[in-house]
Amino acid sequence: MYLAYDYPLLNVFWTMFWFFLWILWFVLLFRIITDIFRDKDMNGWAKGGWLVFVILLPFLGVLVYVIARGKDMGRREIAQARAQQKDFDAYIRETASGGTRPSSVDELTRLSELRSRGDITDEEYDRAKALVLTDDRPAPSPGPSVPPTPGR
Questions:
Q1: Between residues 134 and 103, which one has the greater pLDDT?
Q2: In whole angstroms, what is the distance from residue 85 CA to residue 79 CA?
Q3: Is 31 exposed, middle or buried (0-12, 13-18, 19+ CB in 10 A)?
């Protein structure tokens, strides 16, 4: 009827400790299995052998794998994280820039509209037009391409 009297506090701590170790064991096991498949240096037979060893003799297999290949396991994970970050940064840059570089015709049209509205002077227009036609312009930035003239 009173569970607290039948299960003392120390037993609760031990139960939580063993439950934590059990969860930690499964996390380590799945990370090792993921690393086995991630390794590009191992051939299929080696991957199969490690997988069978880790699954059939889990405690010994995980212990031997961590001792034999633990350092490289960390390096592979870091390399994968760097590659994912590089791909993500490239995607962000491409998305922020609109995906494609505007054509010369589009830029000349936009420059002529800015000149006709009076946003830029004829000298600024000629300089920008020369840059567009020689194609020596830098890659477009996400901000405005022509800064506003002071006083306008």
A1: 134
A2: 10
A3: middle
By C-alpha distance, which of 40, 35, 21 is closest to 74? 35
Q: Are 121 and 132 in contact (CB under 8 A)?
A: no
- Read off the tokens for 143: 């901000």
CA distance linking residue 11 with residue 30, whole number of Å: 29
Task: Report which residue type is found at 30.
Answer: F
Written as six digits, the tokens of 97 are: 């820039």
Structure tokens that stand for 70 in this block: 């633990």
Tens digits of residue pLDDT in 71-126: 888 888 899 999 999 999 988 888 887 655 667 788 888 888 988 988 888 898 89
- Predicted TM-score of the model (pTM): 0.53
Amino acid 60 reads L
